[in-house]
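Entry for the shared binder. Reason: the reviewer on the internal report wants the predicted structure included alongside the sequence.
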Amino acid sequence: MSLPLLRPVWAGAAPPGVGAAMSLREGGVSEGLYASLNLGAAVGDDAETVVENRARFAAALGARPSWLRQVHGPRVLIADEVTGLPEADASVTRKAGVVCAVKIADCMPVLLCDRAGTAVGAAHAGWRGLSQGVVENTVAAMGCDPADLIAFLGPAIGPSAFEVGDDVLAAFVAVDPAARSAFAPLRPGKWLADLFLLGRQRLARAGVRSVYGGGLCTVGSADRFYSYRRDRVTGRMAALVWLHPGPAP
């Protein structure tokens, strides 16, 4: 089955045994506010419709995601040990054929792999998880030299749309004073936050030097992306990364 997918631009740095993709909002059977490839099972969409969307997505990839119940925190799990629907916002694996997956609709997906193609990981990085260390925890859980890792920042709410309060600024600056450069003053007590820059800063602090992607805004592309900030009631996309079980296709 063919679906429109967004493929990470790893700039030739990722090994051929690594698979990665992100869904767009096209190609499913959801209707109305959730049209059409909603992959979120807890956003108010019809349950059977979501099952069909997920089946189409898995068929298009030739891989079945290991889903998480995301809570905007820093917890990371081993994807091949996941059973049920555990609370976590990131997963990693060294096992071929196991798919690390995160759902998004403005929060930033961070996909990771090592240059040798032995480990992959995916993190759901909204401001809460990012400020609490979900990226650093994912890097550590991969068990690789961070300098050997490659990261891709997928579509997220862009710096011209992400209005936040003083609490968000304080949460980042408390950990890294340099994070202030990712916040542009808007009006008293309000800032425009650059989630992509914050992600790059946290990756750099974790020792990851090769970072690609960033810059695609979910809010500004209603035909391609779901956006919670834009629509409130809406669907969810998914970003995935895995190791091919055999020679890369």
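Summary line for the report: The chain has six helices and 14 strands.
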